[in-house]
Amino acid sequence: MKKYLYSIVLSLFILSSCEENLDLALKNQPSVMVLNALAGKDSLVKVNISRTYNLKDEPIDQILNGATVKLYEEEKLLGNLEAFNNGWYQLNTKFESEKEYEIVVSHPDYTAIHSKTNIPVSIPIVEVIFEKEHSNRQYYSIKFDDKEESQDYYMILLKGISLYENNGETYEYSTDLTYYSDDVVFNGNLLENATDLEQQYLLGSKTFSDFTFNGQHAAISFFVDKTSNWSDFTELKIMLYHINKDYYAYERSKKMIENRKNFPFYKKINLHSNVVSGSGIFAGYAVSSKNFKLP
Question: What pLDDT digit, counting tens, does each position of 96-111 carry?
């Protein structure tokens, strides 16, 4: 029996969210190159190169081809990435945990840019517990062991898994799910009705640090509303992303920019970037997951 995997993308930037870019329009400033690469453990090396543009330019001109993109691992050249379409470049190798990588990009029309990042190790999910069901909601907790003597950052994502059969073949679909939590690690960002201004700016951010449980056994609670198609799901897939500091800062600044439109007056927010002489992000992550059979 063959098995196929399809993903219905309904939410945040991970995942193809890992390959989502933001348009960068500038007022009367020289155009610079933009590097976007969210590098996952054991994922194929894939980088998007574009450019900033002035408000008078057409956004379609943001795509930048003809760049030379080099990848270094622990200061050793791994090779030049090959261009394939729409500003994307790739190399037939995979990122590894606990190693430092650098991307260097040059182009005849722009100042060269570069960025470094490290890839974290996967943090296994020890246990997923179904706590209770109440008012059409299901309550869960996820447990894992945090690393000692280091500042670590995480993100949790959920997917509903559906199985369908057609002509003797099984098809698996995954649908991104929204969840809520009053756990202290989220600092109110995943409450249904947050009232504090800063919480509103970060409302919906699924990232958190190990500040409250550094080096300890972590147990984080959350709940999910049973959607109209809940009966289609056979399992809940819980994904624990161990992310580096740049990934954490990027996700939170991106969420603040998305939320600021809800306020008539708001402070200036810059999208986090770790690219030297340019813009964009090069950040690392590692994922562990566990499927939980729905009650």
Answer: 999 999 999 999 999 9
